[in-house]
C-alpha cells in the first residue's frame, strides 16, 4: 500500500495526459477498441501521442515503430538502474513489473531502492506504484475515448502534463550530481526540441546522465576530496 499512497499525488497530472490521448485517437477516426488496444500495447504516453501524430500525417509504419522505440530508449536506462534491486525476483514478478515500468514508478522508487530503506518489501512498493500507474493510465485514456471530447478547451488540460513531470523531478534533486543532470538535460531538451524523430528527448536523457556521472566522479576524485579537507581545516 505504500507504493499506492506514494503515487496518489501524481494522479492529477496523469489524468489530463490520458484524456488528451483518448480524445486525439478518436478524433483521428480510431475505434474505441483499437484505441484501447494501442494503449495496452504501448503503455507509454509520449510514444503513443507521437505515434498518433505520425499516423495522422501518413508516415510509413516502419518509421512510426522506429520513432516509438527511440522515444522509449529511456526505459533501458531505467531498467539498468532497477535491475540490481529486482533481478532476483521470479519471472511471475519480473515480467509484469517490467511491462508496467513508467517514468512515475521509476522516479518514486529509484532513490528508495538505492538507499535500501524498503528492505525486503522493495518489490511490493514498486509493484504498488507500477500497478496503480498502469490502472490510472488505462482508465484515463478510456475516459478520454468516451467523454473527453465534451471537456472544454478552456480547462487547458495539456498544461498539467509538464507540471506532473516537474513534481517528479524536484524531489529527486538531492545533490550536485542530480542538479547538474537536471540542468544539463533540461537545457539540451530545449535546444534539441526540433530534432527529427523526437531524438531531442533521447539526447537530453543521455546528456543529463553523462553530466550527472561526471559531476559525481569529480566529487569523489582524490583532488576534490583533498581540497575539501583543506578548506574545512582552514575554517575557523
TrEMBL record:
Its main location: membrane. It is found in: Cell membrane. This is Inner membrane protein YgaZ. It comes from the Bacteria. Pfam families: AzlC (PF03591). GO terms for cellular component: plasma membrane. It is a multi-pass membrane protein. It comes from Pseudomonas fluorescens. The keyword Membrane applies. The chain crosses the membrane at residues 6-26, 125-148, 177-193, 199-215. Keywords: Cell membrane, Membrane, Transmembrane, Transmembrane helix, Transport. The lineage of its organism: Bacteria, Pseudomonadati, Pseudomonadota, Gammaproteobacteria, Pseudomonadales. GO terms for biological process: L-valine transmembrane transport. Belongs to the AzlC family.
Amino acid at each position: 500500500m505504500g507504493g499506492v499512497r506514494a503515487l496518489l499525488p501524481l494522479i492529477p497530472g496523469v489524468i489530463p495526459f490520458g484524456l488528451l490521448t483518448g480524445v486525439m485517437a478518436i478524433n483521428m477516426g480510431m475505434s474505441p477498441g483499437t484505441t484501447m488496444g494501442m494503449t495496452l500495447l504501448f503503455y507509454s504516453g509520449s510514444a503513443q501521442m507521437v505515434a498518433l501524430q505520425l499516423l495522422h500525417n501518413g508516415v510509413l509504419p516502419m518509421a512510426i515503430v522506429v520513432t516509438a522505440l527511440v522515444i522509449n530508449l529511456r526505459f533501458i536506462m531505467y531498467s539498468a538502474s532497477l535491475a540490481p534491486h529486482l533481478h532476483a525476483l521470479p519471472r511471475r514478478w519480473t515480467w509484469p513489473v517490467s511491462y508496467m515500468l513508467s517514468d512515475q514508478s521509476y522516479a518514486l522508487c529509484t532513490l528508495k531502492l538505492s538507499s535500501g530503506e524498503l528492505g525486503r518489501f522493495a518489490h511490493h512498493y514498486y509493484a504498488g506504484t507500477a500497478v496503480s500507474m498502469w490502472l490510472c493510465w488505462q482508465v484515463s485514456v478510456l475516459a478520454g475515448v468516451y467523454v473527453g471530447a465534451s471537456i472544454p478547451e478552456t480547462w487547458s488540460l495539456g498544461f498539467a502534463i509538464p507540471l506532473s513531470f516537474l513534481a517528479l523531478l524536484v524531489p529527486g534533486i538531492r545533490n550536485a550530481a542530480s542538479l547538474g543532470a537536471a540542468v544539463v538535460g533540461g537545457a539540451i531538451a530545449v535546444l534539441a526540441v526540433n530534432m527529427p524523430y523526437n531524438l531531442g528527448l533521447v539526447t537530453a536523457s543521455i546528456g543529463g546522465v553523462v553530466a550527472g556521472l561526471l559531476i559525481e566522479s569529480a566529487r569523489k576524485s582524490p583532488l576534490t576530496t583533498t581540497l575539501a579537507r583543506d578548506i574545512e581545516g582552514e575554517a575557523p
